[in-house]
Specification:
Keywords: Aminopeptidase, Hydrolase, Protease. Belongs to the peptidase S58 family. One of its GO terms (molecular function) is aminopeptidase activity. It is built from ten helices and 16 strands. With about 350 residues, the chain is an alpha+beta fold. The chain has a single domain, classed as L-amino peptidase D-ALA esterase/amidase, CATH 3.60.70. A hairpin with a 2-residue loop joins strand 11 and strand 12. The longest helix is centred in the C-terminal third of the chain and has 21 residues.
């Protein structure tokens, strides 16, 4: 116990005095958000009504017409127990041509219809004089706190969310994150950014965190799961099968192949937290670059600016750190929620306050 306490005490003092935990190698961007990458904006619509605890989150990779000017994109499926839309075409062509919609598992179809409608409003000839469009919709199962069978997210709500995105946005129990759980506590939306000075580049991360078994939880390398279970009065259980979506944005000039390599490093960040991507977990990372256009459309000058693989190491490091920090942000920003069937998830911030009273 003395050794455990000697490691736990600095973490708790940092939380009590500074309201932060976690170690960083990189400095963050100005707001420590995915929107520190210029042009990226995020919006939420939250449904909070007794058994209905769900919503929509939208990420716009650029303020330009994405259908007309797609961006390089790569995807890594860490564990494929998931119901995404749009990844097959990204894998084939290496570009993203719509905003990204996050919602719950049974509302993926509504996300697709809403995103398609939004893109048709911007490009009225889609599916007629122009090719069809490839909406990207990613999901996690919020059925513990939300009556997911009610399919409360509508197409109109998706369109509304896509039309109201901003560089400043809320985190925690909002949007698609409203009903999500993480390590048997309240999960949801988290974000972070890392500035890479040697490349003069920023990598931003946004997560929809809904994964993790509490006994496996690591914070600052400390196995805290069992201690948290002892400190809480209500039973806390969650298998590592709930899923996480990780969205990465960077202004570094990268190819789709390189972005796929960046996306894979999200797994290193999840491992630092104790996740082992359980059998029933859908763990997907998507990375895009806001540097000019797709490989087919780049000028010779733009192509020559593309980073070499030998230059990728700091971005690989940033992807792991940014993912870990974004999940911690989701846990700390989330507020406790009681939802479907009376099920309850407490917030990590409340748990840390309890541990501070116990140990400090």
């Amino acid at each position: 116990m003395d050794y455990f306490y000697s490691r736990l005490e600095p973490l708790l003092r940092r939380w009590r005095d500074e309201k932060r935990i976690g170690f960083r190698h990189f400095s963050s961007g100005p707001n420590n958000r995915i929107s520190d990458v210029a042009g990226v904006t995020v919006g939420h619509s939250t449904l909070n009504n007794r058994d209905c605890q769900t919503g929509v989150t939208a990420i716009l990779p650029t303020q330009n017409n994405l259908y007309q000017q797609p961006l390089p994109c790569g995807v890594a499926v860490l564990n494929g127990f998931a119901k995404p839309i749009g990844l097959v075409q990204i894998e084939e062509l290496g570009v993203i041509e719509t905003p990204i919609v996050l919602t719950n598992t049974l509302c993926v179809g509504r996300g697709f219809s809403g995103a398609a409608q939004y893109m048709i409003e911007q490009n009225p000839e889609i599916g007629r004089a122009l090719p069809t469009v490839n909406p990207v919709v990613l999901e996690c199962n919020d059925g513990y706190l939300n009556d997911i069978q009610a399919m409360a997210v509508s197409e109109d709500l998706v369109v509304q969310t896509l039309k109201n995105t901003h560089a400043e946005f809320k985190r925690g129990s909002v949007g698609a994150g409203r009903g999500m759980s993480c390590f048997a506590m309240k999960g949801g939306i988290g974000t972070s950014s890392c500035y890479v000075p040697e490349l003069d580049a920023t990598l931003g991360v946004l997560v929809l965190a809904n994964f993790g078994a509490l006994p496996a939880l690591l914070l600052e390398g400390i196995a805290l799961g069992e201690e948290i279970e002892r400190a809480m009065r209500e039973p806390m259980s969650q298998e590592d099968k709930g899923s996480i979506i990780i969205i990465m944005a960077t202004d570094a000039p990268l190819s789709a192949r390189q972005l796929k390599r960046i996306a894979k490093r999200a797994g290193a960040g999840l491992g630092r937290l104790g996740s082992y991507w359980g059998h029933g977990s859908g763990d997907i990372a998507l990375a895009f670059s806001t540097a000019p256009q797709s490989a087919e459309e780049q000028s010779t000058e733009a192509k020559s600016a593309e980073l070499s693989d030998q230059q990728l190491d700091p971005l690989l490091h940033a992807a792991a750190e940014g993912t870990e920090q974004a999940v911690i942000d989701a846990l700390l920003q989330a507020t406790s929620v009681r939802g479907f069937g009376g099920n309850f998830r407490t917030s990590l911030s409340e748990v840390l306050d309890i541990l501070c009273r116990k140990y400090l």
